[in-house]
Specification:
Layout: E1 11-14, H1 16-29, H2 34-49, H3 60-68, E2 79-83, E3 87-91, H4 97-115, E4 117-125, H5 132-140, E5 144-149, E6 170-174, E7 182-186, H6 193-201, E8 211-213, E9 219-220, H7 223-227, E10 231-233, H8 245-260, E11 281-288, H9 290-293, H10 296-311, H11 327-339, E12 341-344, H12 345-358
Parallel strand pairs: 3-4
Antiparallel strand pairs: 1-12, 2-3, 4-11, 5-6, 5-11, 6-7, 8-9, 8-10
This protein binds NADPH dihydro-nicotinamide-adenine-dinucleotide phosphate.
Length: about 375
């Protein structure tokens, strides 16, 4: 059974349904309506199920802090600012990002089903978790889904040495006949900050090339320093132009334009975190109906041919196999459905501290 990440004795496995119930209870105890609590829980647990530990329940504390500091509005009035049959702009009213994001992608899907394409921008929102969650919402409806979000400044751009850009992810999903969907879901930086947090929690240095010092510009590997004002993550492609750092920087800028500036939301170093009031995170959602462009069955069949061809290419001796985007996540999901979701013990302790404070039944 395949799992994307190494699970050792430092992890405890919790059945998916029990974890879901726990997370929903935590949010309900913070006055989040049940339906919204379920959306957030589904998003966080999907991350852990797919092996994206950086964006799973290890983030629970951050959301709880944001709500307790009143930086997040748990009873938002998410309203439509502008709308046409093809697009809409929503004001998230400082909602939990997952709640505003779910609404945004749902609208984009409805529009795509009617007119072939739906684009919805969201302003005034918060951290929305994994970008792939929303792309998959569209895929489940037989559509191509695109999702992007701005995020707080943790990344330097090419030539600079300060936390300025977001780790701002991009996700694109597409259905494939008789196979897992295609799902590219990636930060536009070398890594998302959550991955550095995983190294910090495990007391391990990060690989060289992920981050630099904001004081000297030198490569650094100490996760604590990288997460402090003394360090900054590098854009995808790394330091300078040699390995394409300027392209990762460009992708992050594109997210700032489409998810931020286009929607009347803020961008790059102005974006706030979950505990900041008015963080003004912006999202971009797009759904495309392949059936409006041509024959839907042909699209899915050709997608299948495409991914099979990718897997069948001449293999490098250093690799066991050729993967297609999303595949490791889907296989990990299937394994964890059977074995349970591995939660790092320190994260579990943190979650149980939250539970005890709120009067929620602790895990496991
Ligand atoms: P990864 O580097 O883990 O993976 C990036 C993509 O590559 C995934 O689609 C993954 O699919 C795929 N992949 C992995 N290995 C291979 C391979 N050998 N061949 C082909 N495809 C492969 O993602 P990141 O660490 O960059 O991002 C992790 C998560 O963090 C994302 O879900 C992202 O949305 C989220 N994020 C959220 C932010 C926010 O502000 N809300 C900010 C930044 C990131 P697979 O699922 O199969 O592994």
């Amino acid at each position: 059974m395949f799992e994307k990440t190494v699970v050792d004795e430092n992890y405890v496995r919790i059945p998916k349904d029990r974890l879901f119930e726990f997370v929903v209870d935590v949010f309900k105890n913070l006055d989040v309506p049940e339906e919204d609590a379920e959306i957030v829980a589904d998003n966080l647990i999907m991350a852990d199920m797919r092996g994206v530990e950086s964006h799973g329940v290890q983030r629970l504390k951050r959301y709880v802090d944001g709500i307790e500091k009143n930086a997040v509005n748990v009873h938002p009035n998410i309203r439509t600012v502008k709308e046409s049959p093809v697009f809409a702009v929503l004001d998230g009213d400082e909602a939990l990002g997952q709640v505003a994001g779910y609404k945004g992608m749902k609208m984009a899907i409805e529009k795509a089903k009617k007119v072939g394409v739906g684009i919805v921008g969201v302003r005034n929102s918060n951290h929305y978790g994994i970008a792939g969650y929303y792309a998959l919402m569209a895929v489940k409806e037989g559509l191509v889904g695109i999702s992007m979000t701005t995020s707080r400044p943790l990344v330097t751009h090419t030539g600079a040495m300060e936390k300025f850009m977001g780790t701002s992810p991009i996700a694109v999903g597409a259905p494939v006949e008789n196979d897992h969907p295609f799902l590219l879901d990636m930060a536009t930086s070398m890594v998302p900050s959550g991955k550095i947090e995983v190294y910090r929690r495990k007391n391990k240095p990060v690989p060289e090339g992920w981050a630099i010092s904001t004081e000297t510009g030198e490569i650094i590997t100490d996760p604590r320093k990288i997460l402090s004002p003394k360090g900054t993550i590098l854009p995808l492609g790394g330091l300078g132009e040699l390995h394409g750092g300027h392209k990762g920087y460009g992708l992050s800028a594109v997210v700032d334009i489409l998810a931020g500036i286009l929607n009347g939301a803020t961008w790059s170093h102005h974006v706030g975190g979950t505990s900041d009031k008015h963080s003004d995170v912006g999202h971009f959602f797009m759904a495309i109906d392949p059936g409006a462009f041509g024959d839907i069955e042909e699209f899915k069949m050709n997608m299948k041919k495409f991914v099979d061809e990718l897997r069948g290419a001449k293999k490098h001796p250093g690799f066991e196999r050729i993967w297609v985007h999303g595949e490791k996540g889907f296989l990990t999901y299937e394994t964890r459905l059977k074995l349970g979701v591995p939660i790092y013990k320190k994260v579990l302790d943190e979650m149980n501290n939250i539970a005890e404070k709120l009067g929620v039944q602790t895990l496991p």
